[in-house]
Amino acid sequence: MIVNWWLGVKYIAGGQSWFLAMLNTFVHVIMYSYYGLSALGPSVQKYLWWKKYLTMLQLSQFFAVVIHTGVNMTQTDCDFPQGINYAVF
């Protein structure tokens, strides 16, 4: 994500890059918090009832990125590089 953020800010700064990176970063913070807590052992794992919601969040992120990028690919008045759209899609 650090490389993606740097490339996005350096070469294609704007709303399209920001949305995808922020969404992905948010999901990763939640995801790695879950992984870190689950690594603490059985005494903590029993409180991690929200695993299925984490999976739902990840799937929601996937669909949001696909929809967002798909809409961006079909818009002709946007200066966002089409090659990046294809790579993300």
Descriptive labels:
mainly alpha, 78% helix, elongated, single chain, 89 residues
Describe this structure in a few short sentences:
By secondary structure, the chain is mainly α. Helices cover about 80% and strands about 0% of the residues. The longest helix has 24 residues, at about 15-40.
What does this protein look like?
- This protein has helices at residues 2-11, 15-38, 42-45, 51-74, 82-88.
- By secondary structure, it is mostly helical.
- The chain has one domain (2-88).
- The longest helix has 24 residues, at 15-38.
- It is elongated and about 55 Å long.
Topology:
Blueprint: H1 2-11, H2 15-38, H3 42-45, H4 51-74, H5 82-88
Helix pairs in contact: 2-4, 4-5
Beta-strand proportion? under 5%
Query: Count of helices?
Result: 5
Which value, in Å, is the CA radius of gyration?
16 Å
User: Which blocks of ≥5 consecutive residues have pLDDT under 50?
Assistant: none
Q: Report the span from N to C terminus.
A: 17 Å
Oligomer: single chain
Structural class estimated from helices and strands: mainly alpha
**How many individual domains?**
1
Shape: elongated
The amount of helix comes to over 70%
| Sheet having the most strands | none
Topology as H/E string? Answer: HHHHH
What is the average of the pLDDT values? 87
Count of individual beta strands? 0
